[in-house]
Specification:
It contains 8 helices and 7 strands. Helix 1 (about 20-30) crosses helix 8 (about 225-235). The longest helix has 21 residues, at about 105-125. Helices cover about 40% and strands about 15% of the residues. It has helices at about 20-30, 45-55, 70-80, 105-125, 130-135, 160-180, 200-215, 225-235; strands spanning about 10-15, 35-40, 60-65, 90, 140-145, 185-190, 245-250.
Length: about 260
Protein backbone atom coordinates (compact mmCIF):
# COMPACT_ATOMS: atom_id res chain seq x y z
CA UNK A 1 0.00 0.00 0.00
CA UNK A 2 2.88 2.39 0.68
CA UNK A 3 3.76 2.33 -3.04
CA UNK A 4 0.21 2.69 -4.33
CA UNK A 5 0.89 6.16 -5.72
CA UNK A 6 4.61 5.76 -6.34
CA UNK A 7 5.80 7.04 -9.74
CA UNK A 8 9.55 7.19 -9.18
CA UNK A 9 11.61 6.16 -12.18
CA UNK A 10 8.80 6.57 -14.72
CA UNK A 11 8.95 8.76 -17.83
CA UNK A 12 6.12 10.98 -19.03
CA UNK A 13 5.27 13.36 -21.85
CA UNK A 14 2.79 16.15 -21.15
CA UNK A 15 1.72 18.13 -24.21
CA UNK A 16 0.84 21.75 -23.62
CA UNK A 17 2.85 21.33 -20.43
CA UNK A 18 4.26 24.84 -20.14
CA UNK A 19 1.14 26.42 -18.65
CA UNK A 20 -2.37 25.83 -17.32
CA UNK A 21 -3.60 22.32 -16.67
CA UNK A 22 -0.60 20.79 -18.44
CA UNK A 23 1.79 22.60 -16.11
CA UNK A 24 -0.25 21.50 -13.08
CA UNK A 25 0.04 17.86 -14.14
CA UNK A 26 3.69 18.18 -15.11
CA UNK A 27 4.60 19.67 -11.74
CA UNK A 28 2.74 16.89 -9.95
CA UNK A 29 4.67 14.27 -11.92
CA UNK A 30 8.05 15.96 -11.43
CA UNK A 31 7.49 16.23 -7.70
CA UNK A 32 6.70 12.48 -7.63
CA UNK A 33 10.00 11.56 -9.27
CA UNK A 34 8.85 11.25 -12.89
CA UNK A 35 11.26 12.27 -15.64
CA UNK A 36 8.84 14.59 -17.39
CA UNK A 37 9.01 15.95 -20.91
CA UNK A 38 6.79 18.94 -21.63
CA UNK A 39 5.99 19.94 -25.19
CA UNK A 40 4.81 23.36 -26.31
CA UNK A 41 4.56 25.27 -29.57
CA UNK A 42 6.44 28.20 -28.04
CA UNK A 43 9.97 27.03 -27.33
CA UNK A 44 10.87 29.90 -25.01
CA UNK A 45 7.80 29.25 -22.82
CA UNK A 46 8.65 25.56 -22.71
CA UNK A 47 12.25 26.23 -21.72
CA UNK A 48 11.20 28.62 -18.97
CA UNK A 49 8.59 26.20 -17.61
CA UNK A 50 11.06 23.31 -17.62
CA UNK A 51 13.63 25.42 -15.79
CA UNK A 52 11.06 26.25 -13.11
CA UNK A 53 10.02 22.61 -12.68
CA UNK A 54 13.61 21.41 -12.50
CA UNK A 55 13.67 22.82 -8.97
CA UNK A 56 11.61 19.77 -7.98
CA UNK A 57 13.09 17.05 -10.19
CA UNK A 58 13.81 16.24 -13.82
CA UNK A 59 11.91 18.16 -16.50
CA UNK A 60 12.85 18.60 -20.16
CA UNK A 61 11.21 21.09 -22.49
CA UNK A 62 10.68 20.21 -26.15
CA UNK A 63 9.38 22.62 -28.77
CA UNK A 64 6.68 21.00 -30.92
CA UNK A 65 3.85 22.28 -33.09
CA UNK A 66 1.29 19.53 -32.58
CA UNK A 67 -1.30 21.14 -34.84
CA UNK A 68 0.39 19.47 -37.82
CA UNK A 69 1.24 15.86 -38.66
CA UNK A 70 4.80 16.95 -39.39
CA UNK A 71 5.09 18.44 -35.90
CA UNK A 72 3.67 15.27 -34.34
CA UNK A 73 6.06 13.05 -36.29
CA UNK A 74 9.05 15.25 -35.41
CA UNK A 75 8.25 15.09 -31.70
CA UNK A 76 7.76 11.31 -31.82
CA UNK A 77 11.06 10.85 -33.68
CA UNK A 78 12.89 13.03 -31.16
CA UNK A 79 11.54 11.02 -28.25
CA UNK A 80 12.33 7.71 -29.94
CA UNK A 81 15.93 8.90 -30.29
CA UNK A 82 16.12 9.76 -26.59
CA UNK A 83 14.00 7.10 -24.89
CA UNK A 84 13.71 3.33 -24.78
CA UNK A 85 10.16 3.55 -23.47
CA UNK A 86 7.41 5.94 -22.39
CA UNK A 87 5.30 5.14 -19.32
CA UNK A 88 2.81 8.01 -19.44
CA UNK A 89 1.43 10.16 -22.25
CA UNK A 90 -0.79 13.10 -21.31
CA UNK A 91 -2.57 14.54 -24.34
CA UNK A 92 -3.31 17.94 -22.88
CA UNK A 93 -2.58 20.44 -25.67
CA UNK A 94 -5.85 22.06 -26.59
CA UNK A 95 -7.53 25.03 -28.19
CA UNK A 96 -10.80 26.92 -28.06
CA UNK A 97 -12.55 29.55 -30.15
CA UNK A 98 -15.41 31.80 -29.20
CA UNK A 99 -17.62 33.75 -31.59
CA UNK A 100 -21.29 34.36 -32.22
CA UNK A 101 -23.05 31.65 -34.21
CA UNK A 102 -23.78 33.97 -37.15
CA UNK A 103 -20.09 34.58 -37.79
CA UNK A 104 -18.38 31.52 -36.31
CA UNK A 105 -15.54 30.81 -38.80
CA UNK A 106 -14.64 27.51 -40.40
CA UNK A 107 -11.00 28.21 -39.57
CA UNK A 108 -11.84 28.35 -35.86
CA UNK A 109 -13.89 25.15 -36.05
CA UNK A 110 -11.10 23.31 -37.86
CA UNK A 111 -8.39 24.54 -35.48
CA UNK A 112 -10.30 23.37 -32.40
CA UNK A 113 -11.22 19.98 -33.86
CA UNK A 114 -7.67 19.36 -35.10
CA UNK A 115 -5.87 20.11 -31.85
CA UNK A 116 -8.47 18.67 -29.49
CA UNK A 117 -9.34 15.46 -31.36
CA UNK A 118 -7.03 14.70 -34.28
CA UNK A 119 -3.77 15.50 -32.48
CA UNK A 120 -4.33 13.18 -29.48
CA UNK A 121 -5.08 10.29 -31.82
CA UNK A 122 -2.10 10.73 -34.10
CA UNK A 123 0.35 11.49 -31.29
CA UNK A 124 -0.77 8.36 -29.45
CA UNK A 125 -0.38 6.41 -32.69
CA UNK A 126 3.13 7.79 -33.26
CA UNK A 127 4.23 6.96 -29.72
CA UNK A 128 2.76 3.45 -29.56
CA UNK A 129 6.19 1.76 -29.92
CA UNK A 130 7.50 3.63 -26.88
CA UNK A 131 4.34 3.01 -24.88
CA UNK A 132 4.38 -0.70 -25.70
CA UNK A 133 8.05 -0.91 -24.70
CA UNK A 134 7.11 0.24 -21.19
CA UNK A 135 3.87 -1.71 -20.86
CA UNK A 136 3.32 -4.92 -18.92
CA UNK A 137 0.28 -6.80 -17.56
CA UNK A 138 1.04 -5.69 -13.99
CA UNK A 139 2.01 -2.13 -14.88
CA UNK A 140 0.34 -0.90 -18.08
CA UNK A 141 1.50 2.16 -19.96
CA UNK A 142 -0.93 5.05 -19.50
CA UNK A 143 -2.52 7.49 -21.91
CA UNK A 144 -4.49 10.35 -20.40
CA UNK A 145 -6.58 12.67 -22.58
CA UNK A 146 -7.65 16.01 -21.15
CA UNK A 147 -11.29 16.63 -22.01
CA UNK A 148 -13.67 19.07 -20.37
CA UNK A 149 -16.98 19.30 -18.55
CA UNK A 150 -18.12 21.08 -21.71
CA UNK A 151 -17.92 17.68 -23.38
CA UNK A 152 -20.47 16.37 -20.85
CA UNK A 153 -22.92 19.24 -20.44
CA UNK A 154 -23.84 22.12 -22.75
CA UNK A 155 -21.99 25.38 -22.19
CA UNK A 156 -23.87 28.68 -22.47
CA UNK A 157 -20.77 30.30 -24.00
CA UNK A 158 -20.51 30.67 -27.81
CA UNK A 159 -17.63 28.21 -28.12
CA UNK A 160 -19.47 26.01 -30.58
CA UNK A 161 -16.61 23.70 -31.60
CA UNK A 162 -15.11 23.29 -28.13
CA UNK A 163 -17.79 21.21 -26.41
CA UNK A 164 -18.26 18.84 -29.36
CA UNK A 165 -14.49 18.47 -29.67
CA UNK A 166 -14.18 17.51 -26.01
CA UNK A 167 -17.10 15.08 -26.25
CA UNK A 168 -15.22 13.51 -29.16
CA UNK A 169 -12.03 13.43 -27.09
CA UNK A 170 -13.88 11.57 -24.33
CA UNK A 171 -15.17 9.00 -26.80
CA UNK A 172 -11.72 8.75 -28.36
CA UNK A 173 -10.41 7.75 -24.92
CA UNK A 174 -13.02 4.98 -24.68
CA UNK A 175 -12.30 3.79 -28.21
CA UNK A 176 -8.53 3.74 -27.73
CA UNK A 177 -9.00 1.98 -24.38
CA UNK A 178 -10.88 -0.83 -26.10
CA UNK A 179 -8.30 -1.24 -28.84
CA UNK A 180 -5.15 -0.88 -26.72
CA UNK A 181 -6.08 -3.00 -23.70
CA UNK A 182 -4.57 -6.09 -25.36
CA UNK A 183 -1.30 -4.18 -25.61
CA UNK A 184 -1.42 -3.35 -21.87
CA UNK A 185 -2.02 0.35 -22.40
CA UNK A 186 -4.79 2.06 -20.44
CA UNK A 187 -6.54 5.13 -21.81
CA UNK A 188 -8.64 7.47 -19.71
CA UNK A 189 -9.90 11.05 -19.91
CA UNK A 190 -10.03 13.79 -17.32
CA UNK A 191 -12.82 16.36 -17.71
CA UNK A 192 -11.85 19.53 -15.84
CA UNK A 193 -14.27 22.16 -14.73
CA UNK A 194 -13.10 25.74 -14.27
CA UNK A 195 -9.38 26.03 -13.53
CA UNK A 196 -7.38 29.28 -13.75
CA UNK A 197 -5.30 29.37 -16.94
CA UNK A 198 -4.51 31.61 -19.89
CA UNK A 199 -7.24 29.85 -21.88
CA UNK A 200 -9.89 30.49 -19.21
CA UNK A 201 -8.78 34.00 -18.20
CA UNK A 202 -11.46 35.79 -20.23
CA UNK A 203 -14.15 33.37 -19.03
CA UNK A 204 -13.13 33.89 -15.40
CA UNK A 205 -13.12 37.67 -15.79
CA UNK A 206 -16.59 37.71 -17.33
CA UNK A 207 -18.34 34.72 -15.79
CA UNK A 208 -16.09 33.38 -13.02
CA UNK A 209 -18.30 34.38 -10.08
CA UNK A 210 -21.40 32.94 -11.76
CA UNK A 211 -19.67 29.64 -12.51
CA UNK A 212 -18.30 29.36 -8.96
CA UNK A 213 -21.76 29.97 -7.52
CA UNK A 214 -23.16 27.24 -9.80
CA UNK A 215 -20.46 24.81 -8.62
CA UNK A 216 -21.59 22.67 -5.66
CA UNK A 217 -18.17 23.00 -3.95
CA UNK A 218 -18.22 26.79 -4.53
CA UNK A 219 -14.70 27.25 -5.87
CA UNK A 220 -12.51 26.88 -8.92
CA UNK A 221 -10.08 24.02 -9.33
CA UNK A 222 -6.59 24.18 -7.82
CA UNK A 223 -3.35 22.73 -9.21
CA UNK A 224 -3.28 19.86 -6.73
CA UNK A 225 -6.83 18.87 -7.74
CA UNK A 226 -5.63 18.24 -11.29
CA UNK A 227 -2.27 16.76 -10.35
CA UNK A 228 -3.90 14.35 -7.92
CA UNK A 229 -6.20 12.75 -10.49
CA UNK A 230 -3.38 12.44 -13.04
CA UNK A 231 -1.09 10.84 -10.44
CA UNK A 232 -3.85 8.40 -9.52
CA UNK A 233 -4.38 7.34 -13.14
CA UNK A 234 -0.63 7.04 -13.77
CA UNK A 235 0.18 5.08 -10.61
CA UNK A 236 -0.46 1.53 -9.43
CA UNK A 237 -3.68 2.83 -7.87
CA UNK A 238 -5.11 3.36 -11.36
CA UNK A 239 -3.66 0.32 -13.10
CA UNK A 240 -7.05 -1.44 -13.43
CA UNK A 241 -8.88 1.64 -14.70
CA UNK A 242 -9.36 2.20 -18.42
CA UNK A 243 -11.99 3.73 -20.69
CA UNK A 244 -13.24 6.14 -18.01
CA UNK A 245 -14.07 9.84 -18.04
CA UNK A 246 -13.32 11.46 -14.68
CA UNK A 247 -14.89 14.90 -14.10
CA UNK A 248 -12.78 17.16 -11.87
CA UNK A 249 -15.29 19.95 -11.61
CA UNK A 250 -16.44 20.50 -8.04
CA UNK A 251 -19.68 18.63 -8.73
CA UNK A 252 -20.94 20.59 -11.75
CA UNK A 253 -21.77 17.51 -13.82
CA UNK A 254 -22.48 15.03 -11.04
CA UNK A 255 -23.83 16.78 -7.99
CA UNK A 256 -25.93 19.69 -9.23
CA UNK A 257 -29.35 19.46 -7.65
CA UNK A 258 -32.67 19.83 -9.42
CA UNK A 259 -34.22 23.30 -9.38
Amino acid sequence: MEKLFDLKGKTALVTGGSRGIGAMIAEGFVRRGVRTYIASRKGEDCTAAAARLCRYGECIGVRADLATRDGIDRLAAELRDKLSGLDILVNNAGSTWGDEIDVYPESGWDKVMTINVKTPFYLTQALLPLLEASASPDDPARVIIIGSVDGIHVSSLPTFAYGPSKAAAHHLARTLAAHLAARYITVNAIAPGLFPSKMTAATIEKNGDRIVQATPLKRMGRPDDMAGVAIYLASRAGSFVTGTIIPVDGGITGATGAL
